[in-house]
Design a protein that fits this description.
Blueprint (H helix, E strand, L loop, with lengths): L3 E4 L6 H8 L2 H4 L11 H17 L3 E7 L2 E10 L7 E8 L8 H15 L5 E7 L3 H9 L3 E12 L2 E11 L1
Parallel strand pairs: 4-5
Antiparallel strand pairs: 1-2, 2-3, 3-4, 5-7, 6-7
Length: 168
């Protein structure tokens, strides 16, 4: 998997993003709740990602393998008294699950956030039942700091969340 890399999204990525996100298994643990997920939805996301790149908001990257977009990872530098922290989030196309890709990608983004952004804490909030994401974070050295009881509401259902963090 030497051909694994991150890059910014471009307009041509919309069909592939729609294909990835139009899968209920991919969306199960995302805050995203749009089904069907259309090419127009993907275009709106790409516009959002481009705006974040320009204005210092959420920094979104396409996860690419052999030149094909296979997922997304992002980070958001927090503000105010939490300006030493960044939140991360990610998803991967289902056909690439269980191949060891996401820990490599998380490590790439951790390195960028710590070295380039100069912060000292990265955290992720995940659905408590998302054991695959918990394993990814733990493989990357993140520690579960606690449970955010009833911390997420998706489609009217209340879920607990786990808070994971990595300190520089």
């Amino acid at each position: 998997m030497d051909n694994l890399f991150l890059r910014r999204f471009n307009d041509g990525d919309a069909p592939r993003l729609a294909e990835i996100c139009n899968n209920e298994d991919v969306q199960r643990y995302l805050l995203l709740s749009v089904m069907p997920y259309t090419i127009d939805d993907a275009r709106k996301f790409i516009d959002y990602a481009k705006a974040g790149q320009l204005n210092g908001g959420e920094q979104c990257f396409a996860i690419c393998l052999d030149g094909e977009v296979i997922g997304c990872i992002s980070y958001t530098i927090q503000t105010g008294c939490r300006s030493n922290s960044a939140a991360i989030g990610y998803y991967l196309s289902k056909e690439y699950w269980h191949r060891g890709i996401m820990p490599r990608v998380v490590n790439l983004i951790v390195k960028e956030v710590f070295e380039i952004e100069g912060i000292n804490r990265i955290y992720a909030e995940i659905f408590a039942e998302n054991t695959a994401s918990a394993r990814v974070l733990e493989k990357c050295g993140f520690i579960c700091e606690g449970i955010l009881r009833k911390g997420i509401i998706k489609k009217g259902i209340v879920h607990d969340a786990k808070l994971y963090a990595l300190i520089k």
